Amino acid sequence: MTPDPSADDLRRRPDEGVFGPLSGVESSAMQRLTAEPVIEQLPYWESTPDDLSGAIVEVKRAIRSAIESSGRSVEDAFAAIEDRISQRVDEVNSLKAAGHHVWPEIDFEDIAMGTLAIAEHQQVKARGCL
Q: Which of 41, 47, 93, 117 is the most exposed place for a label (fewest CB within 10 A)?
């Protein structure tokens, strides 16, 4: 059995977001909001709970509480996520318009030989799939 990750394991570097390095807007927003919020574990069930509706309500309350303890409202969090997604859509559209591949194309030989460039690795982290 794998031990549960600690709160320290769940934190990213301050300059790194879900999709890689933070933009200036995201970075400044994170600086305002990173007053070390308490990371509470969300409710978890090994199997489907008997009261599924009640479980959903419990998880939603826990998520709302976690968001609010970070110093922002649910609406703020939603707006930040919406903005991040919009930025990624713009990036994809720009790549397509310039005739570039949206999904990184990497030769297995580069991976096997350890010659994968840092930029290629970052592209996989940002938009890649396996």
A: 47
CA–CA distances in Å: residue 107 to residues 20, 23, 101: 22, 29, 14
Where does the chain have alpha helices with state H?
7-10, 24-33, 52-69, 74-97, 108-113, 118-127
Rounded CA separation 95/91 (Å): 6
- Tokens linked to 112: 């096997």
Name the token pair of 74: 């649910």
Contact (Cβ atoms closer than 8 angstroms) between residue 69 and residue 37 = yes
What's the predicted TM-score (pTM) here?
Answer: 0.52
Per-position pLDDT tens, the chain of length 130: 444 444 444 444 444 444 455 455 444 445 545 455 555 688 989 999 999 999 999 999 999 999 988 899 999 999 999 999 999 999 999 999 999 888 888 889 988 999 989 988 888 888 877 6
